[in-house]
């Protein structure tokens, strides 16, 4: 039997996952669709890898547990498809997807999420994702979804697809508006997501590449627009309204 292929990944403070994938003679004649799987839950990630590697035409080339490693590995290995969990620590999944597409524009992005909120769908469409899968969906549908987006087609979870088909333009163009009728900017929404996840202002500043003073300005602005008076209430609002998954 021919020796396995070893995928080498640069080590960082955050551990990237190394796996051995058996060599198949079919790889010599039919190039598989390569996939990067990104999820901070090891059990879910492992299950997804098993489902994909059980097929003849899909191959997981590397895994990551956070957005920062996802960007690095996508840049290094150029997978055909990147599957990203929406709610991960560190770099926001939507930011990670944007960075990946800047580095590798032909990469097909699929988001994996526990919720199919309008805001998650909106963000997925905005960054240019072709796929959106809810974790409660039938796992057997995932390989077909990945094949579809690898061909440049769009695949959304049945529940999400209802809203996308019914009002795609509205989802794409919808603006979040505060209780005082003032639209909340995209940057303010980004800050709101991190506040909802419990990050301190300094952490948010580092992740978004802006100053702590600017973060404070955005937080204050959002609170005024929403008529919210403290960060705890703001964080609860972010969870309740679907800016993040609880």
Order of strands in the sheet with most strands: 4-3-5-6-7-8
The H/E string reads EEHEHEHEHEHEHEHHHHH
Annotated CATH homologous superfamily of the largest domain: Response regulator
Total E-strand runs: 8
CATH class placement of the largest domain = Alpha Beta
> What does the largest sheet look like?
6 strands, parallel
Low-confidence stretches: 1-21, 23-29, 167-175
Mean pLDDT value: 80
Question: What are the SSEs and their pairings?
Answer:
Layout: E1 5-6, E2 20-21, H1 26-29, E3 33-38, H2 42-53, E4 58-64, H3 67-77, E5 81-85, H4 93-103, E6 108-113, H5 118-127, E7 131-134, H6 141-150, E8 155-156, H7 158-173, H8 186-196, H9 201-208, H10 212-226, H11 231-240
Parallel strand pairs: 3-4, 3-5, 5-6, 6-7, 7-8
Antiparallel strand pairs: 1-2
Describe the protein in words:
Helix 5 links the parallel strand 6 and strand 7. The radius of gyration is 19 Å and the shape is elongated. It has a 6-stranded parallel sheet, sandwiched between helices. A two-stranded antiparallel ribbon has the order 1-2. The chain is built from 11 helices and 8 strands. The chain has 2 domains: 5-173, Response regulator (Rossmann fold); 186-240, Arc Repressor Mutant, subunit A (Orthogonal Bundle). The chain has 246 residues and is α/β, with parallel strands linked by helices. Residues 1-21, 23-29 and 167-175 have low confidence and may be disordered. Helix 9 (201-208) packs across helix 10 (212-226). It has helices at residues 26-29, 42-53, 67-77, 93-103, 118-127, 141-150, 158-173, 186-196, 201-208, 212-226, 231-240; strands spanning 5-6, 20-21, 33-38, 58-64, 81-85, 108-113, 131-134, 155-156. The longest helix is centred in the C-terminal third of the chain and has 16 residues, at 158-173.
